Amino acid sequence: MEMLSSDAIAIRHGVAARLERLPLTRYQRSIFAVIATAWLFDSMDLGIMTFVLGSIKAEFQLSATQAGLLASASFLGMLLGAAIAGLLADRFGRKPVFQVSMVFWGVGSLLCGFAHDVTWLMAFRVLLGFGMGMEFPIGQSIVSEMLPARNRGRYVALLEGFWPIGFIAAGIATYFLLPVIGWRGIFIALAVPSVFVFAVRRCVPESPRWLECTGRLVDADAVVAKIESKVKGALGGVELPPVTPVTHSVADVNAPAGFRQLWTGGYGRRTIMTWTLWFFALLGFYGLTTWLGALLQGAGYAVTKSVFYTVIISLAGIPGFVVFAWLLDAWGRKWSCVLTLVGSAVCAYLYGHAAASHAPAAQLIATGMCMQFFFFGMWSVLYAYTPELYPTRTRATGTGFASAIGRLGSLLGPTAVGMVLPMMGQSGVFTVGAASFLIAALAVILLGVETRGRALEEVSV
């Protein structure tokens, strides 16, 4: 490994310290807003399949298994995109990969609207998912690397909150547009925002932390100087706070990193827990939410009514996210995680039996809202808990592989539902989903550790 000179180390530490001491202003918030906007539209494009799958299934005369494969296609693309995005971003920079991901997303969504058979539609959903999969790790990296540590956690959590909002927005858009332009028109319409966001993304600077890590110290210094100027301007010309040196742990820097470290030094137990948690939690979540609209139609509800019910049910995801974001600090990571998983299991079971028995609409909506409350609360817990389980030297590797295993569950979930549905019916589908959440909860109970109120270094083993 090439050793940095003492001058280079001083500049590198100076870049980090200069970023950390900056007050949060509308400039940093504008960068966050660009990424959050992309997050919102990505969530809409992914969630739209929940609301149009029934219409596609009817048009192409798909079997339940074929519909499940179609619903899983995006997750295959996301798995592939997420697997290579980090490598590309580390080599070519966050900004260009960030922009290229939008090209894949926009083109994929546009082509979905022109697919003449289910095979091509499935291929285009893989392309769309590839762009979304690329975007997730890059978006999180940019937010983490651009914002001060005192604001980083709150804004990363807020970024995840755009998922339920996007899912709900997809349902509202489908409710009003599906009878007018059909599912093809909706996919075409969702390609339009990608052009706007792609243009706006040109205003997002390259990560100075990435520039410093690749030895481009002059460029890193120039980017930080521009950021400082923007922040100072947003403050009305007020002088910025003095720079406080950032201390780096020599032991952590010199320690070995890589995939093997996830299984040594006591981390094997945590890795087994996180992989089990992510796989079964996402298998249950995407297996059920992707099919919500189609299952309601299969139970005899009209298309528009099934979409309307799904939108109402999904509204509970917003307070669910907020409540569990609060519980993480008030009660702790481990037991908040267990609570959201057990709650998801119980409510999924109750909702499935209500839908299968044609229960009154009020009962269906009530059980569905409880289910989505815990579903979306689960996301805030997963993204906050997982990175804290690994030391700095392997944090990205640990969270990255956990996410990849989760995407495998996302890929298998809708397909599994399509296979189980003909054999066990709707109540059986939700029972299997509930079992998935219980397995994830059991893994956390047996293998999880509490990280609340402890410095990251204290959590390391």
Automatic annotation (TrEMBL):
Keyword Membrane: yes
Main location: membrane
The keyword Transmembrane is annotated on this UniProt entry: yes
Residues in Major facilitator superfamily (MFS) profile domain copies: 31-452
One of the record's GO cellular component terms: plasma membrane
Membrane topology: Multi-pass membrane protein
Source domain of life: Bacteria
Keywords for this protein: Membrane, Transmembrane, Transmembrane helix
Pfam families linked to this entry: MFS_1
GO MF annotation list: carboxylic acid transmembrane transporter activity
InterPro entries: MFS (IPR011701), MFS_dom (IPR020846), MFS_trans_sf (IPR036259), Sugar_transporter_CS (IPR005829)
Transmembrane region(s): 31-56, 68-89, 96-116, 122-143, 155-175, 181-200, 275-295, 307-328, 335-352, 364-385, 405-424, 430-449
PROSITE patterns recorded: MFS, SUGAR_TRANSPORT_1, SUGAR_TRANSPORT_2
Localization in the cell: Membrane
PANTHER family associated with the record: CARBOXYLIC ACID TRANSPORTER PROTEIN HOMOLOG
Protein name: MFS transporter
Natural source organism: Paraburkholderia dipogonis
